[in-house]
Amino acid sequence: MSECIFCKIAHGEIPSDIIYEDDKVVAFNDIEPQSPVHFLVIPKEHIPSIKNIDEDNASLIGHITMVINSIAKEKGLDKDGYRIVNNCGEHGGQTVEHLHFHVLGGRYLSWPPG
Ligand code: AMP
Ligand code: ZN
Prior knowledge:
The chain has 114 residues and is of the alpha+beta class. It is 23% helix and 22% strand.
């Protein structure tokens, strides 16, 4: 059995606050929200990071983007906007080694990041 926490969430082996699921992806609320709306979208398949996207799985990124836009609209974020974040590797701030996109919204988000 995989020790990856997001694989466990994707396969229902540990509880999470799932807000969307289809055959390819799962979306769930972040356990430590950084904004009024903060959810994560992950592929069900274990892909360690965005570095592992290639010709064979690139279509997944388009699918994830459409899922993000649809959930964001459902949550009323489309008017004022939202931020999609992918952290890659140590310097990118990635702490969970299973590809995930943060979606943050519901307040003004400053830039640049620290
Ligand atoms: P990153 O630092 O980009 O790897 O982001 C990992 C994110 O996963 C953080 O925002 C964590 O709060 C979140 N996280 C870790 N464990 C869980 C969990 N069991 N359920 C929901 N979110 C989690
Ligand atoms: Zn995984």
